[in-house]
Amino acid sequence: MNLTVFALTGAALVGLGVYGLIARVHMLRRIMAFNLIGSGLFLFFGAAGARGVGLDPIPQALIITGIVVALSASALAVGLVVALARSSGTACLPDEAGDT
Amino acid sequence: MTTTLPLLLLMTSLLPAAVTFFLAQDSHILRNTLQLGGAVIKLGLIVWMLFAVATGATYEAEFPLAPGLVILLRIDALALLFISLSGALWLLTTIYAIAYFGTKAELSRFFGFFSLCVAATTGLALSGSLISFFIFFELLTLSTWPLVAHKQNKPSLAAAKVYFTYALPGSAALLWAIIWLESATGPVLFTEPPDLSGLDPAALRAIFALFIIGVGVKAALVPLHGWLPAAMAAPAPVSALLHAVAVVKAGAFGVVRIVYDVFGAENMTALGVGVPLAIVASVTIVWGSFRALQQDEIKKRLAFSTVSQVSYIVLGAALASPLAMIGGLVHLVHQGLMKITLFFCAGIYDERAGIKRIEGLNGMGKQMPWTSACFSIGAMGMIGLPPLAGFISKFYLGLGAMEAGAPWVLAVLLASTLLNAAYFLPLLYRLWFLPRAEDARGDERASGLVLPAVVTAAATLGVGLLAASPISPLGWATLIVTQGYGP
Amino acid sequence: MTALISWLVLPLFAALAAIALPSRARLPAALLGVGLTVVASIWLTIEVWNTGAVTVSLGGWRPPIGIALRADGLGAALGVMTALVMVAVALAARHELAAKVAGPRIGFGFWPLMLLLWAALNAVYVARDLFNLYVGLELITLTAVALVAISGKAAAIAAALRYLLFALAGSLLYLAGVVLTYAAHGTLDISLLAARTVAPGDALALGLMTAGLLVKTALFPFHVWLPPAHSAAPAPASALLSALVPKASLLILLRIWFEAMPELATPMTQSALASLGALAVIWGGVLALLQSRLKLIVAYSTVAQLGYIFLVFPLAGGDGAAQPWAAGAWTGAIFQMLAHGLAKAAMFLAAGIYIAAIGSDRLGDMRGLARALPMTGFAFALASITLLGLPPSAGFTAKYLMMTAAFASGQWAWALVPAGGGLLAAAYLYRPLSAIFARDTALTPRPIPWAWQTVPLVLAALSVALGLLSSIPFEFLQIGRPEQAAEGL
């Protein structure tokens, strides 16, 4: 029961993230959306790993690695958005609408 | 020795090519030595082998690439016929080209691709399997493109583009045919005819058609001939090479290989594809001559004449009778000799007297007697006057047509001969009988240009006069047909 | 084993050294790292050739607890190709991206990024664990995006961000598939997965992973990010991006379809993947035909050239009894990966020389450049022969093997793709070639060092030589080949 809640929450986070990714053009929001999706997947992963007899350590190890990877990707993305905003005055991609 | 000889033959052209590309523009002596040296050594090797092969020896060399992709070089009588032609004419064309270009620009590039082109032709002649044939066929396409474009002006770049536009789809058709056929038979070697029983007749007919389209582009079969007249924008030595030795000959040679070594005369008759091929060849013969009649530029007239003449070879192969085949094969050599003479002369007229159009020829016979004599011999040979080379070819083709039960071919030969006469005789008339224009000046103070033309003109006369001898092209063609394809 | 580990670790250390050392020592350290990694890659190749696939269980722990690395013929061959491209790029970048010429930002940033990318690529070539592959893919993405943005120009940053968006979306799709796989089977090791009992969720997991990898490989219709990104980077970086980066995701695609879950393939999914490949060949070719800048033409041609490789899905195992070889289509697809890598890197490096010489890569400005830079023109022409699939280049070997498999398995319609694609490639490459070889001589290009000019020429010649000497690589690729490569999916 407990695990199902985790899994469902994970799925909901993925859904929210996908919505944000599609509906928003501001790059910071999109980066947030990516992080939401990632967190949702990791939550689901953790829930899946806790099902069997005893605790499976592998998903935890993998999730930690995944979080580090996601952090690096976010850092690079934010850096690029800042550079984009400095050089073009907007934090949206050139051919997309300028509203946030 | 048996494996090194084919390799050596290839290397005599390939090595000079590889080195020449990197030579400086002004190292004329080294470049010319390389080119001439390669050509002379090659000719020596060919003569050596002529005697060996006449007694039945064969040479073979194999280089496996990926499985199924094997480059097989093999010297048989047919390969040797083509290679002797290209070897001898390469030497003469090189002498001619050295004199023609003098110290003009981009010579290292030109001679590099020139000998690469000859290497491709050599490989093509020596190919013992379909896939090696294709590989060298493509190498030929690639190496002739820069030759056609050599002048780099608008017309020659346009001509080169037209050449590619025809050649690449042709190659695609050829590759398609090869892979289709080999998917049922396994890799095809020319020594052993493939077992065609795995394919139904409709598929075989389609494969045959694709093969003919593939090589027909190079052989300039109507309606795939458009690139050839356009390619006359190239310099004269290139035209000579293209029309007599390399490209169109490669196409015609391909037709012979496909008809006799891949399908076999019997299968061709059984499939009913011989007669359509003969009709295509006949249409090409008549249409090419007809178009030649309408041209006022000398080189264009000669180009359409090539379209017509090369199809004699195709016609000989298509008729599938021994005598017709002898006629076709011997024409492979004869047409080469005659056409190269004519292009050598056209180049001399252009270079030494600035004559490009036929009106310019008026009265030049006395100004440029050697050139005009050679031109006349070549032209009369083309018409088929005895005892010149062209007569022998036509005679055997006619006999072969009767043998094959296709008397309508005689009408084609007759029509073509009349047309040949109609487009060549006026030129001779202008040369020898019309008065020269006031300002027309020409000289022959370039022995490097005139000498090759004299040699090939003499050969045109010689192969006709000595046709009965066993070492003449006719004797050799008879040997090929009786050795390999006897009925 | 030592060879494998040093091959993975050396570029990583070199990258760190290139960051940490004082500026005078950076370039020598980076070049030393390149040299050592090349030696390691040759060493590994010899080991694989002599003893078969090399397997290492890290820390002595075997899967499923530990992580296995395995260098088979495919991985090692891609490793050699990568090493060749890296050396060439390093030699070109020494001139092109020196701090004096390209500014301190590029002069500093390029070397560690290049070496990190190398380490990540090598890791992907030998990883046997789906999550390990994910980490490798992410490392590749991050370095590749940074390489796109390295010039700092607004257009480059926008292209990099767009690339990052697509790449992250692809990564998450892939990750979702990995998570589902683990949830169902409790392992991510490719060999163990091959022996699993099929679970109902496997199709979804495979579908998600495939979708993610397709986005990263820029298969039609996910290709829109590739041309702007590849053409915005400095030329040596473009060479890495076009020649190497998409190969990593393609390799994973081959691994999961042919090794981990081959039984899930259906005729429909195979045809669907190959159809997307065919559309990529056509669409990439048509768009390449419409471009007026050399780097964009070359970038769109990458979209087209990657399309051929997807024919492997329906064609693998299609070599009937008439043929003397097995696994023709599979090996052909890998030949295409190798040939394209070498030829495409040569093309981008040639483009880099032209840009350095005249400051532009517009076809109109490049007319007659072959006169001043004949070797570069020749290199571009040789590389074109490979992309056209003309003999004797390796592109022809690939095309021939795939077309033969198509006919032998009675699916001749797929053979139209390489045949027609070659003609299309001729059309789009004819324009730059005819511009370069035109007669105009108005240009006065900057002189280019001789050593730099030979770099793309050698790469292009290698792409032809790979075809001429294809029998040895052909055999090498069969080392550790999955059964399905010969039997078909």
TrEMBL record, chain A:
<dbReference type="InterPro" id="IPR039428">
    <property type="entry name" value="NUOK/Mnh_C1-like"/>
</dbReference>
<feature type="transmembrane region" description="Helical">
    <location>
        <begin position="32"/>
        <end position="50"/>
    </location>
</feature>
<protein>
    <recommendedName>
        <fullName>Na+/H+ antiporter subunit C</fullName>
    </recommendedName>
</protein>
<feature type="transmembrane region" description="Helical">
    <location>
        <begin position="6"/>
        <end position="25"/>
    </location>
</feature>
<keyword id="KW-1133">Transmembrane helix</keyword>
<feature type="transmembrane region" description="Helical">
    <location>
        <begin position="62"/>
        <end position="85"/>
    </location>
</feature>
<keyword id="KW-0472">Membrane</keyword>
<dbReference type="GO" id="GO:0005886">
    <property type="term" value="C:plasma membrane"/>
</dbReference>
<dbReference type="InterPro" id="IPR050601">
    <property type="entry name" value="CPA3_antiporter_subunitC"/>
</dbReference>
<comment type="similarity">
    <text>Belongs to the CPA3 antiporters (TC 2.A.63) subunit C family.</text>
</comment>
<keyword id="KW-1003">Cell membrane</keyword>
<keyword id="KW-0812">Transmembrane</keyword>
<dbReference type="Pfam" id="PF00420">
    <property type="entry name" value="Oxidored_q2"/>
</dbReference>
UniProtKB/TrEMBL annotation, chain B:
<comment type="function">
    <text>NDH-1 shuttles electrons from NADH, via FMN and iron-sulfur (Fe-S) centers, to quinones in the respiratory chain. The immediate electron acceptor for the enzyme in this species is believed to be ubiquinone. Couples the redox reaction to proton translocation (for every two electrons transferred, four hydrogen ions are translocated across the cytoplasmic membrane), and thus conserves the redox energy in a proton gradient.</text>
</comment>
<feature type="transmembrane region" description="Helical">
    <location>
        <begin position="302"/>
        <end position="326"/>
    </location>
</feature>
<feature type="domain" description="NADH:quinone oxidoreductase/Mrp antiporter transmembrane">
    <location>
        <begin position="127"/>
        <end position="417"/>
    </location>
</feature>
<feature type="transmembrane region" description="Helical">
    <location>
        <begin position="202"/>
        <end position="228"/>
    </location>
</feature>
<keyword id="KW-0472">Membrane</keyword>
<feature type="transmembrane region" description="Helical">
    <location>
        <begin position="34"/>
        <end position="57"/>
    </location>
</feature>
<dbReference type="InterPro" id="IPR001750">
    <property type="entry name" value="ND/Mrp_TM"/>
</dbReference>
<dbReference type="GO" id="GO:0005886">
    <property type="term" value="C:plasma membrane"/>
</dbReference>
<feature type="transmembrane region" description="Helical">
    <location>
        <begin position="332"/>
        <end position="349"/>
    </location>
</feature>
<feature type="transmembrane region" description="Helical">
    <location>
        <begin position="449"/>
        <end position="468"/>
    </location>
</feature>
<protein>
    <submittedName>
        <fullName>Proton-conducting membrane transporter</fullName>
    </submittedName>
</protein>
<feature type="transmembrane region" description="Helical">
    <location>
        <begin position="78"/>
        <end position="101"/>
    </location>
</feature>
<feature type="transmembrane region" description="Helical">
    <location>
        <begin position="163"/>
        <end position="182"/>
    </location>
</feature>
<feature type="transmembrane region" description="Helical">
    <location>
        <begin position="370"/>
        <end position="396"/>
    </location>
</feature>
<feature type="transmembrane region" description="Helical">
    <location>
        <begin position="113"/>
        <end position="142"/>
    </location>
</feature>
TrEMBL record, chain C:
<feature type="transmembrane region" description="Helical">
    <location>
        <begin position="450"/>
        <end position="472"/>
    </location>
</feature>
<dbReference type="GO" id="GO:0042773">
    <property type="term" value="P:ATP synthesis coupled electron transport"/>
</dbReference>
<keyword id="KW-0472">Membrane</keyword>
<dbReference type="InterPro" id="IPR050586">
    <property type="entry name" value="CPA3_Na-H_Antiporter_D"/>
</dbReference>
<feature type="transmembrane region" description="Helical">
    <location>
        <begin position="238"/>
        <end position="258"/>
    </location>
</feature>
<feature type="transmembrane region" description="Helical">
    <location>
        <begin position="270"/>
        <end position="290"/>
    </location>
</feature>
<keyword id="KW-1133">Transmembrane helix</keyword>
<feature type="transmembrane region" description="Helical">
    <location>
        <begin position="204"/>
        <end position="226"/>
    </location>
</feature>
<feature type="transmembrane region" description="Helical">
    <location>
        <begin position="105"/>
        <end position="125"/>
    </location>
</feature>
<feature type="transmembrane region" description="Helical">
    <location>
        <begin position="411"/>
        <end position="430"/>
    </location>
</feature>
<keyword id="KW-0812">Transmembrane</keyword>
<feature type="transmembrane region" description="Helical">
    <location>
        <begin position="131"/>
        <end position="151"/>
    </location>
</feature>
<dbReference type="InterPro" id="IPR003918">
    <property type="entry name" value="NADH_UbQ_OxRdtase"/>
</dbReference>
<feature type="transmembrane region" description="Helical">
    <location>
        <begin position="337"/>
        <end position="357"/>
    </location>
</feature>
<dbReference type="GO" id="GO:0008137">
    <property type="term" value="F:NADH dehydrogenase (ubiquinone) activity"/>
</dbReference>
